[in-house]
Amino acid sequence: KFCLEATKDEDAGGGGAVPDNPEQVLEAMDPQQRSWLEDALKDMSVDVIQQLGNGIKILMSDATDLDEKEETLDCLEDWLGNIDMAVNFHKIGGFACIRKCLVSQHPSLRTGAAHLVAEICQNNEYCQDKLVQEGFLELLCNQLDSDDDEACRVKALYSISCLCRDYTPGREAFSKLDGWSIVVRAILSDIPKLRTKGCFFLGVACDDNPKTVEELARMGLVQQLASILQVPLELTHEHVLRLLLTLVQHSQDARKEAIDPALGIESALKDRLVEGQGKDEFRESVAHITNLMKLCSTKDD
Q1: ∠ at Cα 77 (71, 190), nearest 5°?
Q2: Which of 6, 64, 103, 164 can pair with 170 through a Cys bridge, CB separation 3.0 to 4.6 Å?
Q3: How many angstroms separate the CA atoms of 282 and 272, rounded?
Q4: Residue 277 belongs to what H/E stretch?
Q5: pTM above 0.85, yes or no
C-alpha cells in the first residue's frame, strides 16, 4: 500500500485518473505486474532475527575480513537501538561476539563494540543487568584505563556511563571495581575528550546519588581537580570547574578541603578568573569560578 501511494503520480502518467484507494489499484493491476510487485516486496522484507544470527557468525569467525566485521557492527547498531531487538540479541547468544570484539587486536572493532554496548544498554534494564552479570564492566574498565588507542578509551567511557547512569546495580558494581579511580585517571590525562566526558559522567553520578559525592570526596577528587586548575585557563577547565562546584555544593568534607589554604584553590581561581573575563569561550568557566570563589573563600572561616 505504501509503494502504491508513493508512486501514484508516476503511474498516472502525468494526468491519468488513478483511484485514491490502493486496494482498488491492486485489484485493477495486470496479474503479471501484480505478481512481480508481490515478489519484489517479499524479497525486500528482512528477517531481522536471521540477520542478527548472521551478524553473530561474522563477528565470531576468525576467517572474516576486518571490513566485513566493521560493517556488521554498524548494522547491529541500527537494529539493536530497539529494546526488544537488543533483548532478543542477548537471548540468541549475541553478547559473546561483542565480548570477542572488545578484546580484538583491531582498534576499530574494540571501538565499535564499546559503542554497541552503549547503544544496547540505554534505557534497557534487562541488557544492563546481563552486561553487568557477564563481566562487561571489567572489560570496559580495562579498555578505559589501559588501551593504547584514544578512540577506544573514549568509547569505553561512554559505554560505562550509559551502563551506570540511572541503574543502581551498575553503579554499585562499578564502584566495587574501583571504577571511580579509573575515571579520575582519565580526567587527569592530556586527552580533552576523556577529561570532558569523565567530568560530565562524575557530575551526573554525583547529582544522582549523594553517596557517590562522599565517595569521590574521600578519594581526594578535590585535590586532583585543584591540580588541573593550576595551569592557565583552557576550554576543558569548564567541565573541571563544574564538577568541583558540584562536589563543594553537595559535600561539607569537599568544601572543607577546598578552603584549605595549603591546596591553593582560592589563588588559582583568582588567576583563572583574570584569564577568562571578557572572553566568550570562557563565559561558563567564569560563572563557575565566581560561584566557587564564594563557596571557597576563607575570609569567613
Answers
A1: 90
A2: 164
A3: 10
A4: none
A5: no
